[in-house]
Amino acid sequence: MGRSDVTVVRTGSANLASVLAALRRLGAVASLTEEPSEVQRATHLVLPGVGTLAAAMRKLTEDRLVEPLRERVAAGRPTLAICLGMQMLLEGSEESDGVEGLCIVPGIAERFPKGVRVPQLGWNRIEVEAEAEILRDGYVYFANSYRLVAAPEGWCVASSDYGGRFVAAVERGSVIGCQFHPELSGEFGLGIIERWFKG
């Protein structure tokens, strides 16, 4: 892969080292930002996250990144949201009652039902709708206690099963949201990032 730039948002709640390592392994020149102007002009943008929606949205609000992110996704510009990053795209989460997400993808993240170990930690299979261009069927690494249950209208969906079917990823053009960690999912996960990066 040739020299290119990917900008990674500092959400204040992410393991940035693994994301940066994956991007650099693919030949990307990756940089970190919390500046609205850089979010707006980035060629490719990664929105990572680990932790609670409330903490992450508070950080995005303080850094004045909410509107630039909404505008970027509305314009269909290449954006990859990972783990909590995908939940930030939603309207909200049961984990942070009353906290509004970016409201880009319709739906609320719900806790896994009783009877399954929470969080879901480890590998699970995802199955993708036929029209997906970036997502593929395969095994990926999850670390999550909350998930989106209903497929959002207007998005191509990858689903998985843990205590019932749930939305593992969403795709619309060059905007991808992954509930799993592609950067921790071996060569398969790197393939997802590479297809997004090249798109």
Provide an overview of this structure.
By secondary structure, the chain is α/β, with parallel strands linked by helices. 27% of the residues lie in helices and 31% in strands. It contains six helices and twelve strands. The strands form two sheets. The chain has a nine-stranded mixed β-sheet with strand order 2-1-3-4-12-11-10-7-8. The longest helix is centred in the last third of the chain and has 13 residues, at 186-198. It starts with a strand and ends with a helix.
Task: Kindly list the characteristics that best describe this protein.
single chain, 199 residues, alpha/beta, nine-stranded mixed β-sheet, three-stranded mixed β-sheet, globular
Distance between the termini: 12 Å
Give the number of DSSP strands. 12
Query: Which stretches are poorly predicted, pLDDT < 50 over at least 5 residues?
Result: none
What is the chain-wise order of helices and strands?
Answer: EHEHEHHEHEEEEEEEEH
Give a short account of the largest sheet.
9 strands, mixed
Total number of helices: 6
Gyration radius over CA: 15 Å
Q: What is the average per-residue confidence, as pLDDT, rounded to a whole number? A: 94
Q: What is the molecular shape?
A: globular
Q: How much β-strand is present in the residues?
A: 25-35%
Specify the helix fraction band: 25-40%
For the biggest β-sheet, the strand order reads: 2-1-3-4-12-11-10-7-8
Structural class: alpha/beta
Short recap of the structure:
The chain is α/β, with parallel strands linked by helices and about 200 residues long. The chain is built from 6 helices and 12 strands.
